[in-house]
Specification:
The protein is α+β, with helices and mostly antiparallel strands. Helix content is 29%, strand content 29%. It has 6 helices and 10 strands, in the order H-E-E-H-E-H-E-E-H-E-E-E-H-E-H-E. An 8-stranded mixed beta sheet has the order 3-10-4-9-8-7-6-5, with helices on both faces. A hairpin with a 2-residue loop joins strand 7 and strand 8. The model has no long low-confidence stretch (mean pLDDT 93).
Amino acid sequence: MRTPSLPVSEPLARLLEGASDAFMLEWLNGARRQPGNPCGLRLERIGAAVAPASPGAPEVDFLNRVIGLWPEDADRVPELVAFYRGLGIRPWFELAPATDLERLAAALARAGAVEVGVQAVLYGRCEASSDLAAGCVEVSEVGPGGAREVADLLLAGNEVHNADRRLHDAWSENERWRFYVARVDGAPAGGAVLRVEGGMALLATAATTPALRRRGVQRGLIARRLADAAAAGCELVSALAQFASQSQRNLEAAGLRVAYTKAVWRLVG
């Protein structure tokens, strides 16, 4: 990785947010199309924002997080909140740096939302890496046919035991997604997804199974995806992590840098 040369600015924030928003919308639209519509998923457009809602899984953040909310839609916050209240859901919001952000935050506070966390958005310039594995970790791209294995590894790594597996059934249909499995001494140890569109890459999601943590699995998955993004002609890569987490440290060790942090809000009243 090379040190990013693009200045951290609102246009950059919107570019990086757009990549992660596109990944989530591709996932959610695919899940909604599955027979029986897992978790009763709905996608409501309010202003420029999209409001996913899952009455069948009201506590799952990614199924109930407003996507693409910026200060220009601050006046639509009451409408957004009314939509979720009508379904008995307390949604999540993520606020990236932007002009007039205070107005959006004030609108959320008036609606009964509070700040509950902080996330870091990291970015960097793509370049090939010779460190494609760490120690005894072997990372392989598995193609669309391996999407189910990757999804199962992600669920195991995040210690999610009661998820509706249909939520991942359309993963193999996403042409912009690439799937990876990490193995330690031949045993599946972790999974990851890379999203590539044009010159932009997103280290979309990754997880390590609990029994094989602290073996370099995440570092191997990061290095392989960075190398593949560079080989695909990507100039810029981004990733999301909990602020000050081990995931953030692993991404920084690979050469990414924090572009900005964003506040996570949730409706509580």
